[in-house]
Amino acid sequence: MTDAHQDEYDDNLVEVLEIIWGRGFMAPGGADVVRQIVGDLALQDRLVLDIGCGIGGGDFVMAGEYGAQVIGLDLEAPLLARARREAAAAGLDGRIEFRQVEPGPIPLDAASVDVVYSSGAFTQIADKLGMFKEVHRVLRPGGWFTAYDWMRGPEPYSPDMLTWFELEGLTYAMETLETHAELLAKAGFTDLSTRDDGGWYQRECHAELARMQGPLGPILIERLGRETYDHYLENWRAMAVVLDGGELRPGFYRGRKPLGA
After folding, report:
1. Domain coordinates in residue numbering, the chain
2. Contact call for residues 59 and 87 (beta carbons, < 8 A)
3. pLDDT band at 18 (very low <50, low <70, confident <90, very high)
4. Which of 14-18, 26-30, 51-55, 139-143 is the most confident on average?
5. What is the Cα–Cα distance from 133 to 254, expressed in whole angstroms?
6. Distance (Å, rounded) from C-alpha 143 to C-alpha 232?
7. Which has the higher per-residue pLDDT, 190 or 228?
8. 65-119, pLDDT tens digit by residue?
9. Contacts from 63-70 at CB under 8 Å and sequence distance 24+?
């Protein structure tokens, strides 16, 4: 999957993300964004591959609401252990399989899945073209790749963006929405569609920040301690700055593997 790897999502970060984004989620919007990513795709009894499944929130929605069979892939064993516990507790472990993978090619046969889904994972993958080709390979002809990611504007990174990266402590390899479309086409996808999120997460980030400073503050301080709370509060402030400035540009993208491929 990614070019190199070490565990980046510690327990504190996962707990912060779940408190803000909802149980099981490590990307914005919770179940509502999952539904936007899925859109009009029919998933009942289809095999869906989730790249970068994290703690499984998207998979629970696709299996529970849409009736999909899901394979969730991630690099980090602690995240997958949590996802398996939650799937069992929700009675969905028969519809979802979580697998730990190593960086590199997707360990699935060619033309073996109906849909590939991802939320917030490709923003951390440097070799996007290589991974898009892998997605194309594992999809059955006519299958769809659909995703939501944090992307960048065309300008060089500002000091504000670099400050946010430092506070995040995560590895980012962002590209523009236009570059995603170009790379998908190079990988062999057709019926491409891309769109930014219309400023949705910019507005949501400010709402999250207000909740962190308000009703969520005591919860976060109690669970994480004041120092960790202050760090993530500053992280969210920095993220709001780069969203407001248009440097961080979340968006949706989708492509289809041609029937004859």
Report:
1. 11-256
2. yes
3. confident
4. 139-143
5. 14
6. 39
7. 190
8. 999 999 999 999 999 999 999 999 999 989 999 999 988 899 999 999 999 999 9
9. 63/92, 63/95, 63/96, 64/90, 64/92, 64/95, 65/31, 65/35, 66/38, 67/43, 67/95, 68/43, 68/44, 68/95, 68/115, 69/45, 69/95, 69/96, 70/95, 70/96, 70/97
> Quick one: which of 239, 241, 208, 221 has its CA closest to 30?
208
- Our CA angle for 256, 131, 92, nearest 5°, is 75
Strands of the chain, DSSP E: 47-51, 69-74, 96-100, 113-119, 139-149, 190-196, 251-256
66 phi and psi, to 5 degrees? -105, -10
Residue 4 pLDDT class (50, 70, 90 cuts): very low
Report residue 9's pLDDT band, with 50, 70 and 90 as the boundaries. low
Q: Is the dihedral of CA 62, 64, 70, 76 positive or negative?
A: positive
> What residue type is 198 in one-letter code?
G
Q: Which CATH architecture has domain 11-256?
A: 3-Layer(aba) Sandwich (3.40)
Which contacts (CB < 8 Å, 24+ apart) does range 225-233 have? Answer: 228/12, 231/167, 232/16, 233/209
Hunting for tokens 């299996």 — which residue is that?
63
151 vs 172: CA distance, rounded Å: 10
Mind giving me the DSSP string for 148-159? EE--B-SSPPPH
DSSP-derived letter for residue 122 is G
Bridge-based pairing of strands 113-119 and 47-51 is parallel
- R_g of the chain computed on alpha carbons: 18
